[in-house]
Amino acid sequence: MSLSVVIVGSGPSGFYAADSILKKAKDARIDIIDRLPTPYGLVRAGVAPDHQGTKKILRVFERTALKPNVRFLGNVCVGKDISVEELKERYDAVILAYGAARDRHLGVPGEDLGNVFGSWDFVGWYNGHPDYQDLNPNLAVSSVVVVGNGNVAIDVARVIAKTNRELAETDVSDVALRAKDQSGVTDVHMVGRRGPVEGAFTHAELAELGRMEECVVLADGRQLPDEVGDVDDKVRKVKETNLATLHEYAKNTAADKPVRLHLHFYASPVELSGNGSVEKVTFERNTVEDGRCVGTGETFELDAGLVVTCIGYRSEQLEGTPFDERRGVVVNEDGFVEPGLYVVGWAKRGPSGTIATNRPDSVGVAEKLITDHGEGTGRPGPDGLDSLLAQRGVRVVSIEDWKTIDEAEVSAASETDAPRRKLTSVSEMLALLD
Ligand code: NAP
Question: Exposed (0-12), middle (13-18) or buried (19+): which is 290, by Cβ within 10 Å?
Fold first, then answer.
């Protein structure tokens, strides 16, 4: 009898969980399910296309996926093709690792105007995620507002501001390149509700903005303090380096390059307005008191033909699992949900941290799972799943099938500098396989 585990979601947190289970229980049988035919979650569809170095972590996950007692089952949607309850009946343990795939909303008037997008959808669009290829954002506008001061806001601002020539060595989607060909963008405004010291971005990402070919980064020196002030020692270094870089940006001038990225602080959007499609955003100026932003009542406007909100994500509830609506995560205690059910990654703790943050998080949950379930309880595991999915006519995509898709994508880019040209529709992928 060996432990059988099914993991719902094939992103970093799911793969780290699989890997750490196998380190402790070498003969465990592990199935990793994903609703897309492609594995690796946010590494494929979230990490920016011009961060190919970050994507190299795939090689580590692939080693796990190719182990004899691990299976990847792509194109299987939990909640539609099979329920969590049915998985629980068949495996000793179920791990939810399905991330946080919904945008948080600003909750201000005008958010539903045309050409306003959340970063989940927008990033999915430029990263070739099949669900977002018809998003159709119009980049033939002069001014763009990006709301948020995290690394996603930086990714989005950078991908919009870079030239297509700078994106030639990336796997950005064809639809995004075509839209960028029509781009009339001269000004990108990235707006944080708190100050430069409170910015959630990390230094490598902030500094990278300064290396764009045709876009100059501008900051208003009057918004930049001389010192970071009273901050936790753990983050002091990064805050000081960020502030020094922002002071450098404040020395730039608008005329330096044809496109400008303006970094604004202390402002919250209070209304988006326009005739059908967004035309401007009204902001209220804030002060920061005890780390919280407080509105001053003073407002200002920015022109915006396109708005992307990058203000964080939430998970969705899977039927039969307890869910915290307010936080947008699965209810859990250190990853334990209920007997036989665990959660890791963003579905567990919310959308925070880098890919590597998921490792210790998943290791801890895997250790708990092994303590709870040891050698297994004799449930059928993988053997119990296949017949059910076959009965339901689900075309399961195996890891070998994924390798076929992978090779097709890489060879489609062979005449170019790009690492791959992504297949961006599920039917296209399945047609290739069958
Ligand atoms: P994040 O780091 O949490 O940043 C969210 C930003 O949205 C913050 O500036 C937040 O401001 C702001 N915000 C939230 N609600 C708002 C509202 N109602 N109005 C205005 N602003 C609002 O989240 P993220 O950028 O989505 O990134 C998610 C995680 O992925 C992060 O841990 C990030 O570091 C990671 N990531 C890493 C990389 C990389 O390493 N290159 C790239 C992308 C993402 P407050 O701070 O005031 O709440």
Answer: exposed
Query: In this structure, are residues 36 and 74 in contact, taking their beta carbons and an 8 Å threshold?
Result: yes
**What residues form DSSP beta bridges with 282?**
271, 301
Q: Is the CB of 162 under 6 A from ligand 1?
A: no
Q: Are 386 and 392 in contact (CB under 8 A)?
A: no
Q: What amino acid is encoded at 385 in this protein? A: L
What Å distances lie between residue 296 and 3, 29, 291, CA to CA? 58, 58, 15
Amino acid in position 267: A
DSSP readout, 12-56?
Answer: HHHHHHHHHHHHH-TT-EEEEE-SSSS--HHHHHTS-TT-TTGGG
Q: Which among 147, 151, 263, 270 is the best mutation to test ligand 1's pocket, defined by most ligand atoms within 8 Å of the CB?
A: 151
Task: Give the tokens for residue 60.
Answer: 């580590």
Per residue in 127-178, pLDDT tens?
Answer: 999 999 999 999 999 999 999 999 999 999 999 999 999 999 999 999 999 9
Ligand 1 centroid, distance to 346 Cα (angstroms)? 13
Protein residue whose Cα sits closest to atom 26 of ligand 1: 312
pLDDT digits (tens, 9 = 90+) for 354-406: 999 999 999 999 999 999 988 788 888 888 899 999 999 999 999 999 999 99
Q: From the CB of 152, is ligand 1 less than 6 Å away?
A: yes
The C-alpha atoms of residue 434 and residue 413 are separated, in whole angstroms, by 22
Tokens linked to 324: 């915290």
d(CA 188, CA 306): 9
User: CA-CA distances (angstroms) from residue 49 to 12, 43, 125, 257?
Assistant: 17, 10, 11, 23
Question: How do beta strands 292-303 and 280-289 pair?
Answer: antiparallel
- In this prediction, residues 49-64 reach a mean pLDDT of 97
In the β-sheet with 267-273, what is the strand arrangement from edge to edge?
A: 267-273, 280-289, 292-303
Q: Which residue has the tokens 């955003």?
A: 281
pLDDT of 69 > 90? The answer is yes
As a whole number of angstroms, the distance between CA 223 and CA 131 comes to: 39
CA distance 424 to 407: 14
Cβ contacts of 105 within 8 Å, gap of 6 or more: 111, 118, 309
Residue type, 404: T
Output the CA 24–ligand 1 centroid distance in Å.
Answer: 35
Q: Which two tokens stand for residue 204?
A: 């490598």
In which element (H, E) is residue 190 found?
Answer: strand 187-191
Rounded distance between C-alpha atoms, residue 347 and residue 328, angstroms: 8
Its pTM stands at 0.97
